[in-house]
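Operator note (shift B, R.M.): manual run for Outer membrane protein assembly factor BamD requested after the automated queue skipped it. Running by hand, logging everything below so the morning shift can see what happened. Input copied straight from the record, untouched. If output looks odd, do not overwrite the archive copy; leave it for review.
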Amino acid sequence: MKKFWGFLLVIVLMTSCGEYQSLLKSNDYNLVYKKAIEYYNKGDYQRAMNLLDGVRSVFVGQAKAQNIAYYRAFCSYNMKDYQIASDLFKQFIQTYPESSFAEECLYMMGFCDYKASPKPRLDQQVTEKAIREFQLYLSRYPYSMRKDKVNTYMDEMRDKLSYKAYLSAKNYYLREHYKAAVISLQNCLKDYPGSKYREEIMYMLFVSKYQMAVNSVEDKKVERYNNAREEYYYFADEYPNSRYAADVKKMYEDIEAYLENYKFED
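Run finished. Output pasted below as returned.
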């Protein structure tokens, strides 16, 4: 019995393969289109894509052209070729801006790039692109049922960007490149004021300014100690009960002791 079912499976596969090869060479374009959709509905996205590619130029300017563009984009999406899919959804919107599929395709354009977004330590151009695309989607469809979902995706990606910026700044800090750390940490606070790493970023910023003062040439020490003291006030005001409080207070006392010698009389 097992041999019978195995033999039957081979026959089915051979028949399917033969049909597909014939379709690739067929001039019956309507049949090729019909079979491409059938392959798509069966989950055979690669064959569907190949068949649609073969007839899409034939149906330019006809009603089927829109469906072909739509299915080609979803073939790429279902095959997890997310960046190609995003480009195909974009092409669809540009070609058929008034289509009933336009909203879905604009959403999918952003969603594909969201899916293609890499791990935080890697280049995040695709992540930034996905955020822009989702922002465009919400600006065009502010009352969309997908609104909450899109906002969740954008928050997730902003957190990823925030984390990457935090890692980059922390790398300077750990390597004791304090000048570069100060610039990078300040950019983190400017670009991602709501970052969940804000407390640590502000702590590292204070320490970096303090270390710049300690290791500075004499004629710049007063200015840099004052800068560090100002940073301490920002930190202490925002995080009075910080886990870094004891460490920060000790450095602040050192700053005050140094500046005590440079008080000027009125």
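Quick read of the result: Residues 24-112 form a domain with the Serine Threonine Protein Phosphatase 5, Tetratricopeptide repeat fold (CATH 1.25.40.10). The two ends are 105 Å apart (CA to CA).
Leaving this for review. - R.M.
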